[in-house]
């Protein structure tokens, strides 16, 4: 069995032996994307498992092992990990955990430390935790993020974002219920199979596949009646994770809405772009700038592939990052980078512009960056584009679902009225 | 014909409209959470009493109506939307609607861009809040209005949340403030909350309409709104039925009445609510439990036949008064448990009179009082000793379990618990303002559901599925209960669930324990709330351990006080008023404003018949001694004076205003010097106070952001109002790197608050607002970047000038910090010389703001300790590994300070935490960890808008008492 090794500061390392013996648990956030991206780890010889557990016990476990005033995503992610480890399903001496770390100025950079504290409290301090980050934080001999691996992760992300974007636009209108998600499933399976054989990542190949995916979705039988179109933005975890937002997307679907959730690619571009902005604002190394710019350009290229393929078949393509960024100019500074930063504000403007003016702005209760970029900007957004109909919803273990849904329903009532006005206006002409 | 139902959190309203939209029938009834049967009952009645309902269109609205509507196939109309429809029909031309309901508060802007504002997760300032406050004042709800009409003055009561307000009101009551004044103050708080929390910068003007129960029934509340909004609002006759009418107006479908009545009756909710295991599986389990706990008793004696000295102990708690009389061997001779409905003085008088009547020859050797009302009772009746509650409870617990390791007391309004280490109180947890009120919450809830607390609690003992209500603040629980009811939870399940919640709240919010081992094996529980078997059982189950609950659980504070009095071995008799003195006892209260310093405390002056006087409500000793407090050993005072010394210097380039808040409390010297050197006249806004806060509070977009950030709005408004046309308030992602951490960020709020100001303050457009992103952490790049920034706003400034200005700025900043450290050294040296305890009052630079720290520094200084701040000692420590990512400059200092004091016997750390500070969720645990690993006591004080310092005092006194005890224990060892 792999020996437990520690670094100078006493951090438990994930060693090469562990890579052979251990299963790495990954937290779930955006299901379509994460399921695809998981495959990439498997390609590189890691045994991984995506945690798809849900239920109130997870928050309870979180509350038990994490400071209760910590943000809700931390409670859930850590709760989910410890809940899994305590479930008896895993050999805890052959299990590791992986969590992302952005290194930004928000509390989220501390999740990994809170997780370790929680593990210690639960008597599981021998479980190694791997930090997944691009900042060179916390090195482990048994895990490294190589350039080809990053490229493949990005490739998988692009597939995921595309599938999410397309299915969101077909699901509410499908004539044969369930076809969209079935298509997502069949493509996810096919892609997984391709990844196993090392296929699907070459630029040309990926573009052709994306084109095929879009085409498949465009051929679904749809009945395009006018529906309320709702955008979802917010703190990244509660924005995507059904566990974090009380199944928000499902609720909106039940209310007969079309939902648009901006993809993860925008966030990835934002995080990379922040490093460029930092240098522009405060000065810094020119070579570093150039290196980061290469990564940025690469991501943009991938993004444009996604936009091109979806637009070609008449779908509303994912918002172009550079355009989204342009929208927010003069509204909030590009230096505002903690958490979702200015991107959150920008996404609200972008959604309003592209026909999703009804917006749920999700945030964990007391989320610090969202005081600024979410709630703090709603007033300004409305003054810029009065079509915007935004409701801010707080999530935490104590916030009752009924209140959240009631507030969303109010937003939807106004949305419905706006939609009817628009329809009657159009019918007059 | 149309029928609309409005199902609120506490009431059901129903209207029937005819085809001219005239109300044909209406009813307004409390549903006591029996929502479905109430609806069935009302519909049946409507059908019977109103003609022509067969083809009526029906819709349901209201916060509690959603699930019922869905299940029964009746249209649901969101209630705010319904209100709007009704207003447009009944009062055309309405601009703004203000509606207060049971748990909701709303403002609707109908004209000029429709907008709706609802209260968020906080239920402060609603009907439920007024209800709660009426209970606290012990007056029927209907009397609140009448009372308020007789008021003469208003007090400042925190308006954020019922629990906060409670902590403000209780001391006022204890200090003897008039109920009428408090009632009016409560209304003022509600108005404040609504306007500040919901208007969020939008002016409330034009035709204003008041709706909802509280505003309909309470004319004083309407008057308050009129006053604050400077308008005359309309409260229509059918104000209670607007939502119901709106629902009726939106109704699109007819229903089959009988089918619906039947469907509603059978609606049991989804049956899907999270629940815990039953408290007791069966009667036998309960019997065994009862038997076990009946064993922790005290010896009883008979007061009448008893001969010898006796000892009196009183616990003047927030909601109850407990008194005991003990004999020389500690036997319990007499006890009294009284509900505290406000002023404790007459109750104690009653207790003593009864005691003297029962035992005319009583020989009282000593007496002690503890609890919230300690000071007033001690002074009014001349008790010999006043002790802090924690000491009282510890003393009592030791009697039952000499080697007790952990004591937890859940009282009416607070949770106190502490660990015992080496015979001294080691680790004290008090509930922060947000989760207090556990015992009284159970009570309020029982009453709301129409039960007595005793009966209500018993209901839960054998509940099959105790509802899982989580461990958050009680206000949130209220909504969770509502949800559970809708999902089909029975009253038994809810009762049990609430008991479990109280326990979880204590364990996971206050103590933050994760296992029983952490708290030790020997646990004594006490306080009135534990008399409730359901709570006790939930505690044992949650902790998975058996604990001792003394049969006198509710009297432990008083019992401990009496034991304390006994242990003092007084040679003379007690000074407590005897039966003669008691006859002439008189008590008068006068409320005055102190006015001796800018805190301007509201003082309650209590006068007694024999000419003695007691002043309450003061923060410092000044109104009593008439001397200003000794400031020489208080660095907070020094820091504030230092900042005030940065006065404007006339310059040729114009004036610049700087808001004196958040990071400016440290960077003012930097920017002042920078701009002065460039030839600007730099002025800072004045030091914060309530008035300044009020100036900006309407423009705060996020009601959950920390108070220091909220204050910025007032500062900016003040600068604009004083005619500054340029305001400088830069965004700073990064702070200066002091080499103590892994990074040197500011927290997101400090870093980017200028963006919030720019986006939400209307008047900011009148001035040049410079909120540029600057990097003072890159000393070399800064001049060039600052030069580029300045060039956007001013002509003719050269790079050379900026370079010189930057140099001066960094130098001034360094000098400023050096001065603080030098002063700190001097204070430490002085304290060492005088043998005084040193408290490192830690927080962030802006905690120097007296409006933020609430005079806690002065209060501490009053205890005779020396006060330094974290930055004085943090520089004495090298960077060391922490278990969290150490990435914020201000917080790195906290860790370093904790590390430093660990090595010093004469230093202790008290951490100031702003309510809502998310970063502190991380830092507090780390600071605690560092201190505890070195055997130090961790003390945390959460501060917000609240002005009550009672809890703070308990904390500090307990800390000092514990430090003293530890020291004595060490000496003995």
Summarize the structure.
Chain A is of the alpha/beta class and 429 residues long.
Provide a descriptive summary of the structure in words:
The complex is a heterodimer of chains A (429) and B (973). In chain A, helix 6 runs parallel beside helix 8. The termini of chain A are far apart. With 429 residues, chain A is an alpha/beta fold. The mean pLDDT of chain A is 92. A 4-stranded parallel β-sheet of chain A has the order 2-1-3-4, with helices on both faces. Chain A contains 17 helices and 8 strands. Chain A folds into 3 domains: 16-144, Rossmann fold (3-Layer(aba) Sandwich), CATH 3.40.50; 146-225 and 264-311, no CATH class; 227-262 and 319-429, Rossmann fold. In chain A, strand 1, helix 2 (31-43) and strand 2 (47-50) form a beta-alpha-beta unit. Chain B is an alpha/beta fold and 973 residues long. Chain B folds into 5 domains: 2-115 and 189-266, Nucleotidyltransferase, domain 5, CATH 3.30.420; 309-388 and 560-583, Nucleotidyltransferase, domain 5 (2-Layer Sandwich); 408-547, ATPase, nucleotide binding domain (Nucleotidyltransferase, domain 5), CATH 3.30.420; 635-814, no CATH class; 817-972, Rossmann fold (3-Layer(aba) Sandwich). In chain B, strand 11 and strand 12 form a beta hairpin. The longest helix of chain B is centred in the C-terminal third of the chain and has 36 residues, at 799-834. Residues 433-437 of chain B have low confidence and may be disordered. Classes of the chains: A alpha/beta (429), B alpha/beta (973).
Write the layout of secondary structure elements.
The complex is a heterodimer of chains A (429) and B (973).
Chain A (H helix, E strand, L loop, with lengths): L15 H6 L1 E4 L4 H13 L3 E4 L5 H10 L6 H15 L8 E6 L10 H11 L7 E4 L14 H24 L8 H18 L6 H16 L9 E7 L1 H5 L7 H7 L2 E4 L3 H19 L3 H27 L8 H7 L13 H13 L4 E7 L3 H6 L1 H10 L4 E7 L5 H28 L1
Parallel strand pairs in A: 1-2, 1-3, 3-4, 5-6, 5-7, 7-8
Chain B lengths: L1 E6 L3 E7 L5 E8 L4 H15 L7 E5 L4 H7 L2 E3 L1 H12 L5 E5 L4 E5 L5 E4 L8 H11 L3 H9 L12 H13 L4 H21 L8 E4 L1 H5 L1 H11 L12 H9 L6 H10 L16 H11 L15 E8 L3 E7 L5 E8 L5 H14 L4 E8 L3 H8 L3 E3 L1 H12 L5 E5 L4 E7 L2 E7 L7 H11 L4 H7 L14 H13 L4 H21 L4 H4 L3 E4 L6 H11 L12 H12 L11 H5 L3 E7 L8 E7 L4 E4 L5 H4 L9 H10 L10 E4 L5 H14 L3 E4 L5 H7 L10 H15 L4 E3 L19 H13 L7 E3 L11 H12 L5 H36 L3 E5 L7 H4 L2 H6 L4 E4 H5 L14 H13 L5 E8 L4 H15 L4 E6 L6 H23 L1
Parallel strand pairs in B: 1-4, 4-5, 6-9, 10-13, 13-14, 15-18, 22-23, 24-25, 26-27, 26-28, 28-29
Antiparallel strand pairs in B: 1-2, 2-3, 6-7, 7-8, 10-11, 11-12, 15-16, 16-17, 19-20, 20-21
């Amino acid at each position: 069995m792999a020996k437990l090794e520690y670094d100078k500061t006493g951090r438990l390392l994930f060693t090469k032996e562990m890579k052979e013996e251990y299963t790495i648990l990954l937290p779930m956030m955006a299901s379509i994307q994460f399921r695809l991206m998981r495959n990439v780890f498997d390609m590189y010889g890691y045994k991984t498992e995506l945690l798809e557990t849900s239920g109130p016990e997870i928050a309870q476990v979180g509350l038990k092992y994490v400071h209760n005033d910590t943000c809700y995503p931390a409670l859930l992610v850590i709760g989910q990990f410890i809940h899994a480890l305590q479930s008896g399903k895993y050999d805890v001496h052959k299990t590791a955990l992986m969590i992302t770390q952005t290194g930004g100025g928000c509390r989220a950079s501390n999740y990994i430390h809170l997780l370790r504290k929680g593990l210690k409290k639960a008597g599981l301090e021998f479980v190694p935790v791997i930090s997944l980050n691009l900042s060179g934080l916390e090195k482990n001999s048994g895990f490294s993020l190589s350039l080809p691996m990053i490229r493949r992760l990005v490739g998988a992300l692009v597939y995921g974002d595309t599938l999410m974007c397309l299915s969101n636009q077909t699901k509410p209108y499908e004539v044969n219920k369930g076809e969209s998600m079935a298509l997502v499933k069949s493509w996810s399976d096919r892609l997984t199979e391709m990844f196993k054989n090392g296929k699907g990542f070459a630029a040309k190949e990926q573009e052709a596949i994306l084109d095929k995916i879009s085409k498949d979705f465009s051929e679904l039988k749809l009945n395009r009646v006018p529906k309320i179109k709702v955008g979802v933005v917010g703190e990244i975890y509660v924005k995507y994770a059904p566990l974090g937002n009380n199944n928000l997307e499902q609720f909106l679907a039940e209310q007969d809405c079309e939902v648009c959730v901006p993809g993860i690619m925008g966030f990835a571009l934002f995080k990379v772009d922040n490093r460029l902005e930092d240098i522009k604002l405060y000065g810094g190394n020119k070579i570093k700038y150039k290196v980061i710019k290469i990564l940025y350009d690469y991501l943009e290229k991938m993004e444009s592939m996604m936009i091109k393929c979806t637009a070609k078949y008449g779908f509303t393509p994912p918002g172009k990052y550079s355009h989204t960024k342009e929208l927010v100019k003069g509204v909030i500074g590009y230096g505002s980078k903690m958490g979702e930063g200015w991107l959150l504000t920008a996404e609200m403007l972008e959604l309003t512009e592209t026909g999703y003016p009804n917006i749920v702005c999700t945030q964990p209760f007391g989320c610090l960056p969202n005081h600024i970029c979410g709630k703090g900007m709603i007033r300004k957004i409305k003054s810029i584009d009065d079509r915007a109909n935004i409701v801010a919803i707080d999530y935490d273990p104590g916030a009752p679902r009924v209140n959240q849904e009631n507030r969303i329903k109010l937003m939807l009532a106004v949305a419905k009225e706006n939609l009817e006005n628009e329809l009657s206006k159009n019918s007059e002409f | 014909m149309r029928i609309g139902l409005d199902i609120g959190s506490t009431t059901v309203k129903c209207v029937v409209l005819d085809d001219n939209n005239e109300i044909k029938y209406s009813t307004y009834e409390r549903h006591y959470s029996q929502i479905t049967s109430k609806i069935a009952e009302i519909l049946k009645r409507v059908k019977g009493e109103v003609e022509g309902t067969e083809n009526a269109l029906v819709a349901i609205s209201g916060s509690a109506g959603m699930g019922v509507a869905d299940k029964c196939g009746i249209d649901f109309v969101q209630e705010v939307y319904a209100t709007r429809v009704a207003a447009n029909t009944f009062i055309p031309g309405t601009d703004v609607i203000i509606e207060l309901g049971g748990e909701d508060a709303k403002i609707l802007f109908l004209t000029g861009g429709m907008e709706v504002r609802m209260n968020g997760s906080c239920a402060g300032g609603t009907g439920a809040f007024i209800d709660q406050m009426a209970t606290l004042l012990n007056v029927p709800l209907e009397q609140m209005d009448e009372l308020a009409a007789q008021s003469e003055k208003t007090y400042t009561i925190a308006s954020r949340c019922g629990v906060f307000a409670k902590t403000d009101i209780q001391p006022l009551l204890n200090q003897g403030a008039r109920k009428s004044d408090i009632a009016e103050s409560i209304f003022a708080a509600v108005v404040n909350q609504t306007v500040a929390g919901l208007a969020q910068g939008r002016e409330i003007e034009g035709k204003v309409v008041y709706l909802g129960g509280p505003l309909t029934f309470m004319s004083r509340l309407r008057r308050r709104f009129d006053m604050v909004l400077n308008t005359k609002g309309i409260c229509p006759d059918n104000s209670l039925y607007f939502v119901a009418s709106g629902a009726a107006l939106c109704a699109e479908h007819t229903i089959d009445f009988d089918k619906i009545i039947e469907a509603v009756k059978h609606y049991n909710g989804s049956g899907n609510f999270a629940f815990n295991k039953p408290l007791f599986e069966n009667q036998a389990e309960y019997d065994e439990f009862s038997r076990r706990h009946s064993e922790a008793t005290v010896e009883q004696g008979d007061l009448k036949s008893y001969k010898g000295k006796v000892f009196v102990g009183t616990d003047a708690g927030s909601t109850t008064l407990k008194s005991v009389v003990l004999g020389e061997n500690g036997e319990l001779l007499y006890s009294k448990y009284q509900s505290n409905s406000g002023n404790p003085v007459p109750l104690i008088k009653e207790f003593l009179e009864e005691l003297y009547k029962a035992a005319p020859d009583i020989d009282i050797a000593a007496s002690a009082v503890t609890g919230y009302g300690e000071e007033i009772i001690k002074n009014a009746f001349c008790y010999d000793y006043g002790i802090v509650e924690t000491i009282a409870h510890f003393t009592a617990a030791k009697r039952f379990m000499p080697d007790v390791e952990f004591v937890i007391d859940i009282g009416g309004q607070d949770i106190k618990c502490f660990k015992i280490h080496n015979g001294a109180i080691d680790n004290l947890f008090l509930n922060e303002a947000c989760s207090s009120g556990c015992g009284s919450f159970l009570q309020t809830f029982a009453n709301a559901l129409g039960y007595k607390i005793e009966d209500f609690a018993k209901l839960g003992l054998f509940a099959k599925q105790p509802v899982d209500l989580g461990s958050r603040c009680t206000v949130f629980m209220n909504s969770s209960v509502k949800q559970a009811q809708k999902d089909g939870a029975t009253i038994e399940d809810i009762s049990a669930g609430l008991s479990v919640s109280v326990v979880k709240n204590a364990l996971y919010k206050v103590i933050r324990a994760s296992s029983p081992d952490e708290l030790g094996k020997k646990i004594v529980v006490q306080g009135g709330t534990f008399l409730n078997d359901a709570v006790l059982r939930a505690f044992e189950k949650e902790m998975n351990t058996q604990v001792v609950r003394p049969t006198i659980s509710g009297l432990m504070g008083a019992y401990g006080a009496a034991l304390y009095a006994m242990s003092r071995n007084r040679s003379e008799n007690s000074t407590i008023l005897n039966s003669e003195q008691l006859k002439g006892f008189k008590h008068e209260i006068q409320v005055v404003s102190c006015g001796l310093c800018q805190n301007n405390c509201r003082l309650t002056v209590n006068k007694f018949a024999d000419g003695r006087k007691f002043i309450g409500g003061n923060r410092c000793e000044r109104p009593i001694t008439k001397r200003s407090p000794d400031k020489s050993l208080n660095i907070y005072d020094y820091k504030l004076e230092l900042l005030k010394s940065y006065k404007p210097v006339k310059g040729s380039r114009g004036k610049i205003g700087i808001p004196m808040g958040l990071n400016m409390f440290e960077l003012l010297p930097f920017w002042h010097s920078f701009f002065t050197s460039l030839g600007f006249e730099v002025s800072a806004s004045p030091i914060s106070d309530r008035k300044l806060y009020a100036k900006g509070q309407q423009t705060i977009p996020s009601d959950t952001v920390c108070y220091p950030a909220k204050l910025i709005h007032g500062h900016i408004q003040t600068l604009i109002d004083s005619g500054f046309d340029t305001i400088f308030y830069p965004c700073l992602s990064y702070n200066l790197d002091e080499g103590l951490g892994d990074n040197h960020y500011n927290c997101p709020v400090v870093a980017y608050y200028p963006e919030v100001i720019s986006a939400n303050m209307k008047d900011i457009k009148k001035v040049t607002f410079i909120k540029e992103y600057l990097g003072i952490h890159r000393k070399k790049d800064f001049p060039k970047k600052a030069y580029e920034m300045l060039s956007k706003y001013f002509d003719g400034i050269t790079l050379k000038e900026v370079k010189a200005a930057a140099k001066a700025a960094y130098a001034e900043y360094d000098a400023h910090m050096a001065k603080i450290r030098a002063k700190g050294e001097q204070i430490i040296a002085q304290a060492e010389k005088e043998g005084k305890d040193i408290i490192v009052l830690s927080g962030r630079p802006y905690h120097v703001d007296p409006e933020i720290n609430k005079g806690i520094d002065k209060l501490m200084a009053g205890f005779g300790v020396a006060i330094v701040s974290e930055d004085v000692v943090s520089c004495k420590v090298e960077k060391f590994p922490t278990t969290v990512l150490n990435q914020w400059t201000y917080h790195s200092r906290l860790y370093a300070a904790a590390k430093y004091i660990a090595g010093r016997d004469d230093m202790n750390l008290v951490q100031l935490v702003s309510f809502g500070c998310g970063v502190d969720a991380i830092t507090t645990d780390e600071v605690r960890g560092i201190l505890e690993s070195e055997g130090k006591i961790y003390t945390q004080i959460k501060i917000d808008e609240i002005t009550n310092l009672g809890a703070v005092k308990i904390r500090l006194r307990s800390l000092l008492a514990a430090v003293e005890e530890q020291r004595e224990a060490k000496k003995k060892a």
